[in-house]
Amino acid sequence: MFDPEDETQRQTLIKSVHVFTMVIYSIAFLLGVTGNGLVIFITGFRMKRTVNTIWFLNLAVADFLFTFFLPLSVVYTALGFHWPFGKALCKFNSSLAFLNLYASVYLLMVISIDRCISVVCPVWAQNHRTPRLATLVALAVWVVALALCSPNFYFRHTAPSQNNKTINCYNDFNTAGEQATKKQREESVKMNHRAMIISRFVLGFLIPFTVIVCCYGAILIKLRRNHLAQSSKPFKVIAAVIITFFLCWFPYHVFSFLEMHFTPSLLNALIIGLPLTASLAFINSCLNPILYVFMGQDFKERLRHSLFSAFENAFTEEAASTTANTKNKSTTETDSQGF
User: Fold this and answer.
1) What average pLDDT does range 235-251 have in this prediction?
2) Using CB atoms within 10 A as the burial measure, which of 2, 43, 72, 262 is most buried?
3) Transmembrane region positions (predicted)?
4) From CA 291, how far away is CA 275, in angstroms rounded?
């Protein structure tokens, strides 16, 4: 039996969640645009083009583009999910969110692979690790990200709500056509929705996360085996990268799977969980400058002298110092073995 009191409580809960998500979106916009904009300025205009600056520049561009358009989502939520910006921006805004997801995730994966190669195979890295190759790899990442986010562009549509008072920006997974039977349309929606969620989890989380863990695991083993790490700082940074990546994205995928297997008993959990986990995933776009820059060695000391020099040194210290130490260690071992 319908309980008006329960419905009132649910509506109050929904409004509270929406206000909270708008606050999170606004914070992500301010931090993301400022932090990533600064990274873009420094790596793109103030520093020499190197492999590291290419990685960080592309990562910052992906995060900047996404966070720059977050106000559209804030307005959409504030207007009670009325989309006043037209069909083209509806498709663009949603596709941009998932372009950021795939571009950021795969760039993080590429950075982890690059660092792993620099530590495990320093001689090969010295001979083949060039800015030109890094540019080509970054371009390939963008092409892959565009291809993977294209289904979101295809399925995203606008349509009037049931009361014709608002315009919704939503996913229309029906590919069976309006001439199909109701059962065929329902099966089409279910199949496409499931395919989107599973592919997003596998391609946007499982594969890159596995690669990142394996790469940083190999780095840790190499550093400990050769006693190259003089402090716990590198291990803390590596742990922070893995944990942050997992915490930001895994809850989002969990609730996506719950939504796919929706039951009335999950309604309240989905009302709260879906917006909150999406907000958490969006926050990841403004954390990358913090993880890769502000956690650099002696950052606070350099910050007292110059913010720009703090960023510049952070971008050049990551792989360079590790590679140099690894090369020195490898040379010593080679000389002692008589090769």
Assistant:
1) 77
2) 43
3) 20-42, 54-79, 99-121, 133-155, 197-223, 235-254, 266-294
4) 24
